[in-house]
Design goal:
20 helices, about 70% helix
């Protein structure tokens, strides 16, 4: 009998309910989605030595000395490299290990992801305890980043095979978890830090340890919930023509057009997301408190209140992000993938260009809604792209193809923030008021989307590829969600969805509670 992790071991038996699979994928994606919430650790870690106040490193200390020093605190900019490493290694590991994940099956890939992500967090706990930032970069950034990549791609091909009639819905259900993981993880981490905080400790290493154990367990449960459908019977010729190999896909212009589509959409979205909170604060300043004061004229207490509202805004954008992943990808099942991306780029271009106008009106609600809508399309782009790939190249090699495409995310994770911050700083250096320093940046990001629109319009179907669609009996079998009609089927579906739905609902509630500050 094949081992527990082998691909042959996870073929579902007759009567298996396909709605048991998305919660397993969500368990993995909600766990690795905590990567988006890592900023909750930066401020306490920046005073890990001083505890109450940061102890800055001497100006004369070299970078190498700062990396290995145990006597002074890390700067937020040094800690931020963990976030950069996340997405570099996410894209890199997805590209490198995508073919392996396709070959060995989703369960083995999911288990390895659990060891990397959970183990990386535990190693980060040791890094904080020893106060060695290189170990933090290794644990969370590099090893954890590999876990992000494997965890991200592991369920996608499986879901597309279970839902050939609803590819967008299937991938949206899983990938929305990556966008929503921070809504659970960030407030949970904040509570754990407050629980473990003592006069001699900021409570972060204990929080890393607890989160590492929790996420390791959740991801293992999710990976062991993975199942593959019975292979559909098909003719010998259809098997070869239904899907392209990875090497063949990489030689098509369609793949590289989609690479550019994803890169430009993510560059614009992540560039805006990274600066959304300071942009809100600097554009509206005292108007958020009902005062006719510029941001530079606020008192320390007023700045604190505005910063709290900026943090609430960031949380609200996470909600738009997760909602867009499910809604837009589901709509693509009816609209088509290419028309859906066309809508992303047309609407996004207009909305980015409207941000400066919304800031000048002084209407916070309008500003929030515009950026929120952009975030739905940012998230929707991630969730729709696997189905787009399956439509173009067939579903058999999606883990490998999707993994290679995610290198566009790694490039965008650097390109978007660098463009936004560089252009903002250049505007301020020229003497542009801080409330207007983002105008040119938004127009430039709108230009990114115009180029993305052109690339998307150039994507055309591959004439030599016949779509792999199960025969009517096989598709009917996938639809037989409760084949035996027993209560046991309903019980397990309800239990698994509750296991992921209750934490997700708690995260949404926490986000909405904080977001009320924006409109009070």
């Amino acid at each position: 009998m094949p081992g527990l992790l082998e691909k042959e071991r996870i073929i579902a038996g007759p009567g298996f309910n396909r709605w048991l699979v998305p919660p397993a994928a969500l368990a993995v994606h909600l766990s690795i989605g905590m990567a988006y919430g890592f900023s909750v650790f930066w401020l306490p870690l920046s005073r890990a030595v001083g505890v109450h106040q940061p102890i800055p490193c001497p100006v004369s200390m070299t970078l190498v000395e700062r990396i290995f020093s145990t006597s002074c605190d890390w700067s937020v900019s040094m800690l931020g490299w963990t976030y950069t490493l996340f997405f570099i290694f996410l894209g890199g590991s997805a590209a490198c290990f995508g073919p392996w994940a396709e070959r060995v099956g989703p369960r083995k890939a999911g288990v390895v992801a659990a060891f990397c992500w959970g183990g990386g967090l535990m190693l980060s706990a040791l890094a904080v305890y020893l106060h060695q930032i290189w170990l933090l970069w290794l644990g969370s950034g590099i090893i954890g980043g590999v876990g992000l990549g494997l965890g991200y791609i592991s369920p996608v091909s499986m879901l597309i095979r279970w839902f050939p009639d609803r590819r967008g819905l299937a991938t949206g259900l899983a990938i929305m978890g990556f966008g929503g993981g921070a809504m659970i993880g960030a407030p949970l981490a904040d509570r754990l830090i407050n629980t473990f905080e003592t006069p001699d400790s900021v409570g972060v290493w204990q929080t890393f340890l607890v989160l590492g154990i929790l996420y390791f367990a959740a991801m293992l449960l999710g990976a062991f919930g993975y199942r593959l459908p019975q292979p559909a019977p098909r003719t010998e010729g259809a098997a070869a023509s239904a899907s392209l190999s990875l090497s063949s896909v990489l030689r098509t212009r369609q793949f590289w057009l989609l690479w550019a589509v994803l890169c430009l959409n993510v560059s614009a979205g992540i560039g805006l997301l990274g600066m959304a909170s300071p942009m809100l604060q600097e554009i509206f300043g005292g108007r958020m408190l009902g005062l006719d004061l510029a941001f530079s004229s606020l008192s320390a207490e007023q700045e604190r209140r505005v910063a709290t509202m900026g943090a609430a805004f960031t949380g609200l954008l996470s909600l738009f992000n997760i909602g867009g992943r499910l809604v837009w990808s589901s709509c693509s099942d009816y609209l088509g993938r290419k028309p859906t991306y066309t809508l992303f780029f047309l609407l996004g271009t207009g909305l980015f260009a409207a941000i400066p106008w919304a800031g000048e009106t002084g209407n916070v609600f309008l500003f929030v809604v515009i950026i929120g809508l952009i975030m739905t399309m940012y998230g929707g782009g991630f969730a729709t792209i696997p189905a787009y790939l399956a439509d173009l190249f067939g579903p058999q090699q999606i883990s490998a193809i999707h993994g290679r495409l995610l290198t566009a995310w790694s490039v965008a994770g650097i390109l978007g923030p660098v463009v936004v911050t560089t252009l903002r700083d250049e505007q301020l250096a020229r003497g542009v008021p801080v409330s207007e320093a983002y105008h040119d940046t938004m127009y430039l990001l709108a230009g990114f989307l115009v180029i993305g629109l052109i690339c998307n319009l150039l994507v055309s179907p591959l004439q030599r590829l016949r779509q792999e669609m199960p025969a009517a009996p096989a598709l009917a079998a996938l639809h037989a969600d409760t084949a035996d009609g027993s209560m046991n089927q309903y019980f397990w579906v309800a239990l698994t969805w509750s296991a992921v739905g209750i934490p997700l609902a708690w995260g949404v509630w926490q986000t909405m509670t904080k977001a009320r500050l924006l409109f009070e």
